[in-house]
């Protein structure tokens, strides 16, 4: 886990970045440290305003309450719970931000700071006040479990659930303070052959999904599809979704393009974020030993078998011995070192992946003899957005009629074709970025990220795009749509006329969507060694493995192969 920075620097910086709105609540004057009462303030978080209420007695902070927010479920909540507890327990603002939830943490801290000022408190004193949490120095002994799962995204949570329901003792490690990983940010599941799709009146079979994935893998990644691996995943994807809907009760409610499963309102990352939160609750309920802020650092072997892992936790380092280890720790899009090694051209390229996708599991597996494959392959995304210093994907800009244009107002690629080709075309532009253009009926991303105007001409002027060029581009786009013909870039899908005001534009840039390569595995999710044979005791699922997939396909495959890994491990350790 990356070392967090201290609040003193953060608070001095974010005071210039975040807009703060404060209003006093019920107060009564006292002669103590604070004016007793409850005060509220808001600050900009990752997805919008975060509203916080802080209650003071005359002498101390008694409660910090999160009133309203739009942060990612499971991430923003964790940041609030962690930080608010430390503020109240330590009577200090000198606490660390939560790794992976920096913007949410900063918003909470800045809002609390504002409330302290309203209550007449000394912010500077609280910023230098040491946290009263005692240092933990107890010696941790080695432990034993049946199955150790490393990484709590879709693959790890699913593997843990099925291993535990089979009667095995399971420890699930997550190096960050919250679960979900990239899975929480995916937004949708792609699959076929589910009862849910049938219930929604959608005819899209597992075979339809296989053909779709095989085409995407062959065309977009440029490598031969592993037919057996992909058939295994697509044949079981429908059952995986039905389990999530029927047993875990995830709020799936909408199907688009046959295979894409969203929440009922189709918005943002709601479905997958809530799915990961609900999966987390489910594994804890059935007795999985979930350990947050515990990072596996090295695999342990004995006589050629992987038998455990060394772990670094809040209280020190220790070893967990296990009959089977399932590696589900994610890809390496955020690892500059691995990108420099395998794809040096793209080292340092922005990514929407979480900061935790540093390839730890890939490195650990390679150290015990696992073969890595496809490491040079990944998908670029042409529609990233800089949200307060955090790179997020706004792929919705390309759907429902949206187009991408350069500063001349001209399109340069098929927005819904090959992601990587579109991103490379964008990088070839002098400005190395573009503008997404939408109308009100096709707004596919958050309006607060966008420039808005009542006419196309006004919109072009606001964003510095040639108005004549943009008008000509839209006219040509409309002409192809009206004729039901391919446009100049071969786009046929998800088009509509851009003719309903208000109009929106968002500045986007390309970056790494996800990595494809990793630990070489077979269809039983066993990690393979240099001889092509399985490494005893080691399994892998999700982006840590060479799955040759991306986006929502990779998310569904992570869940499917997480279950397969658990079932394989259970069979092998009997």
TrEMBL record:
Q: Residues in domain FMN-binding? A: 45-119
Report if keyword Flavoprotein is assigned.
yes
Where does the secretion signal sit in this chain?
1-24
For this UniProt entry, the molecular function terms from Gene Ontology, in alphabetical order, are: FMN binding; steroid dehydrogenase activity, acting on the CH-CH group of donors
According to the UniProt record, one GO cellular component term is: membrane
Q: Which reaction does it catalyse?
A: dihydrourocanate + A = urocanate + AH2
Give cofactor(s), names only: FMN; FAD
| Protein's UniProt keywords contain Flavoprotein | yes
> Superkingdom of the source?
Bacteria
Q: Which UniProt keywords apply?
A: FAD, Flavoprotein, Oxidoreductase, Signal
Enzyme class, first EC level, given as a word: oxidoreductase
Q: Matching InterPro entries, A to Z?
A: FAD-dep_OxRdtase_2_FAD-bd (IPR003953), FAD-oxidoreductase_2 (IPR050315), FAD/NAD-bd_sf (IPR036188), FMN-bd (IPR007329), Succ_DH/fumarate_Rdtase_cat_sf (IPR027477)
Give EC number(s), comma-separated: 1.3.99.33
What family does this chain come from, according to its entry?
Belongs to the FAD-dependent oxidoreductase 2 family. FRD/SDH subfamily.
Question: Per its UniProt record, what PANTHER family does this chain match?
Answer: FAD-DEPENDENT OXIDOREDUCTASE 2 FAD BINDING DOMAIN-CONTAINING PROTEIN, FUMARATE REDUCTASE
According to UniProt, the name of this protein is Urocanate reductase
Q: Which organism is it from?
A: Oxobacter pfennigii
- The protein's gene is named ifcA_1
